[in-house]
Amino acid sequence: MTLFTMAFTLVRHGETQFNKDGLLQGQAIDSCLSETGVQQAEAAGCYLRDVTFTNVFVSSMLRARQTAEVILKHNSSGAGLEMVCDALLKEKSFGVAEGRPVEAYRAMAAAAGETTVDFVAPGGESEQQVTERFRMFLESMLRRIDADHWLNHPEPVPSASEPLVSPPAEGRADEGLGALGAPGVHALLVGHGAYIRSAVRHLLQALGCSPPPGVDHAHMLSLSPNTGLSRFVLTLARDQGGLAIRGVRGVFVHRADHLK
After folding, report:
1. Which of 13, 149, 192, 202 is catalytic?
2. What is the tens place of the pLDDT at every residue in 183-198?
3. Is 13 labeled as catalytic in the residue annotation?
4. First vs last Cα of the chain: how many Å apart?
5. In the annotation, is 74 catalytic?
6. How many CB atoms lie within 10 A of CB 64?
7. Which of 47, 65, 193, 229 is the most buried (most CB within 10 A)?
8. Catalytic residue, candidates 15, 42, 91, 127
């Protein structure tokens, strides 16, 4: 069996005025980055400046697209990359709660006797629906990655050239990428807070992701800060349907070194 490795770095969009005011955006409110949000994206772009990306997938919402554009502007590999905008990466829909304070949403969930994660506001998405969108995105991403890099030129997984134990939280921007073989497939994904939390939960619970050393599930399932960075390494194998995930390893989660 031929195995492949790839990595993806998942970035939450920069701050918007709705974030600053504690209001839910969801899908109906397509807000732009605030001045602080642009500065956060600039900082993330500088932090990732020398990290090589081979593919870019971005939520079709404005705040995510703006964040990706700023990151790629600074990135040494960004000039020739196609930014693939995908509605499967859009934020969770909060239905009638969109535009309302986050605290009001929490009160609605409490009144229904549910957690904010499990609660579904009228017209909104369930956790299962968001997770299904991420699962579908992974399948779509792997088809694109396979066509771009491996379908006609497969590369076996090499021995890791760096230890699987991560350095402390303030680690290198290229951490975890030394284990990738040619062509060094590494995707940039830019999305949203609630969506990323659902995505990480899927990686942990459905795909058996091993967390970074010293990182517990509570931290992994917390809300990423604006422009928080999370990186995962996938081990893949080819089956009749294309590339299938055989293992997932967390490198770091919700890193915000660039904001200090």
Report:
1. 13
2. 899 999 999 999 999 9
3. yes
4. 44
5. no
6. 27
7. 229
8. 91
